[in-house]
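User: Let's play a game. I give you a shape written as tokens, and you guess the letters that built it. Ready? Here's round one.
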């Protein structure tokens, strides 16, 4: 007879000890939950009484610090919110986690304001949480903006974490830290109670050790009757057609390209038909993308701040003024020119916004959907992100390339899965598809993960060393 589920209390005690030991090296968890042991004991009592809430009953989850928790601070990494009371209510997704029997272990650090304050930012830094580091290479980036969630899962501080993404903020730290990151279709997970950038692009999503864990967590986050875990069916991908768009998503990292070629070979062995040497159009103009984000930020952030019943800041102008008053900390490493640009925008009825939003939507959706339709494809596969770059607080990030922009503009799903190592640094492969193709992407990602482990063994654990 197999042993029953491990008691939640023992799990939380072990994870808290792990956080005490490892977190000082990586600063992934910015706010531990002092009530976690009490919550775990209560859930164990429920289990003993035969009341099991679901497959995640008693599981510990870390939540990114831009997602509202009524019992813990929600700061978006900024000192302006650090001294404010916690939000009056849990975000709907947090309420769903609790209802499913999850223990909120704590909050994870992020790139301040989800990496949309200044263009020379360093991923993983915030005035509140400090600098999150990559456990595979402490002098290299953990990616952003869900830096703490990715670093924490890689470091064994929890198997489950929740991140958020506007453009790459889940799949980037997932790839750099060697974990699974699933950005759902926008709207599948409720946006309420998340400190926003853009209502047209923002979504929360799972960051986990395995694809099956991501699927189980997505089922809870969506609050729907869909059981995404049913799509984790093994390796067989017979009858599945996967497109490989070479341009403009390859060629910026020789090591990453090599590992991705090996990943494609594994997919082929699983029975998938690969339609190679395709190309996606460039994902619209940078100016259109910035116009969309800046216009939506000003409006959406004011709406969010109005929900905080704490006498704190109410507008983007309030945040800009606070940063100027506390420039020695908040503006030490980079500025707030994106905030300042957003402050000059004139609302969502502005012709500039309407035109930019339409152009961005077409660039994302037409690019993906046309490629899928023309080649009768189920999904696309591509390199995720360049290997982790050296942390440079003075000059900011050095990102060579990525896979997230088309899906970001479209509001479509992505999943990044560890594919291998480049000189000891994790890299990933990304699966992309049309809107509401989350279940298909989970199936492909799980098949690939299963095949990769069979061929190469479990993904190596981090050693918390400097990389030279």
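Assistant: Ready! My guess for every position:
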């Amino acid at each position: 007879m197999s042993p029953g589920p491990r008691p939640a209390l023992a799990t939380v005690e072990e994870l808290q000890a792990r956080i005490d030991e490892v977190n000082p090296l990586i600063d992934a968890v910015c706010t531990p939950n002092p009530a976690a042991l009490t919550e775990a004991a209560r859930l164990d009592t429920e289990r003993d009484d035969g009341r099991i809430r679901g497959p995640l009953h008693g599981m510990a989850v870390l939540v990114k610090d831009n997602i509202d928790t009524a019992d813990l601070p929600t700061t978006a990494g900024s000192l302006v919110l650090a001294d404010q009371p916690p939000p009056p209510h849990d975000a709907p997704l947090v309420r769903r986690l609790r209802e499913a029997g999850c223990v909120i272990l704590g909050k994870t650090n992020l790139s301040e304001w989800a990496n949309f304050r200044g263009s020379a930012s360093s991923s993983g830094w915030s005035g509140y949480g400090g600098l999150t580091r990559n456990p595979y290479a402490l002098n290299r980036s953990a990616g952003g903006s869900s830096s703490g969630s990715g670093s924490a899962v890689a470091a064994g501080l929890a198997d489950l974490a929740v991140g958020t993404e506007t453009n790459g903020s889940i799949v980037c730290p997932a790839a750099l830290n060697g974990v699974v990151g699933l950005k759902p279709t926008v709207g599948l997970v409720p946006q309420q109670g998340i400190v926003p950038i853009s209502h047209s692009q923002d979504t929360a999503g799972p960051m986990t050790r395995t694809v099956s864990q991501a699927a189980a967590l997505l089922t809870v986050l969506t609050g729907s009757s869909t059981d995404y875990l049913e799509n984790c069916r093994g390796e067989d991908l017979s009858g599945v057609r996967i497109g490989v768009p070479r341009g403009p998503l390859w060629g910026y990292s020789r090591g990453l390209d090599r590992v991705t070629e090996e990943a494609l070979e594994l997919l082929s062995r699983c029975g998938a038909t690969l339609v190679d040497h395709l190309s996606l159009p460039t994902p619209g103009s940078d100016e259109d993308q910035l116009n969309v984000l800046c216009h939506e930020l000003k409006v959406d952030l004011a709406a969010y701040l109005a929900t905080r019943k704490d006498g704190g800041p109410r507008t983007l102008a309030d945040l800009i003024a606070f940063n100027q008053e506390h420039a020695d900390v908040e503006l030490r490493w980079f500025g707030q020119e994106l905030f300042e640009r957003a402050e000059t925008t004139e609302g969502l009825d502005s012709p500039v916004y309407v035109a930019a939003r339409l152009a961005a939507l077409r660039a994302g959706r037409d690019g993906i959907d046309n490629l899928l339709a023309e080649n009768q494809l189920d999904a696309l596969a591509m390199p995720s992100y360049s290997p982790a770059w050296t942390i440079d607080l003075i000059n900011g990030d050095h990102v060579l390339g990525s896979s997230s922009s088309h899906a970001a503009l479209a509001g479509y799903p992505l999943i990044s899965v560890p594919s291998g190592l480049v000189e000891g640094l994790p890299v990933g492969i990304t699966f992309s598809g049309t809107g509401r193709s989350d279940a298909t992407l989970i199936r492909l990602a799980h098949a690939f993960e299963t095949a990769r482990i069979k061929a190469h063994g479990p993904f190596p654990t981090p050693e918390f060393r400097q990389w030279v």
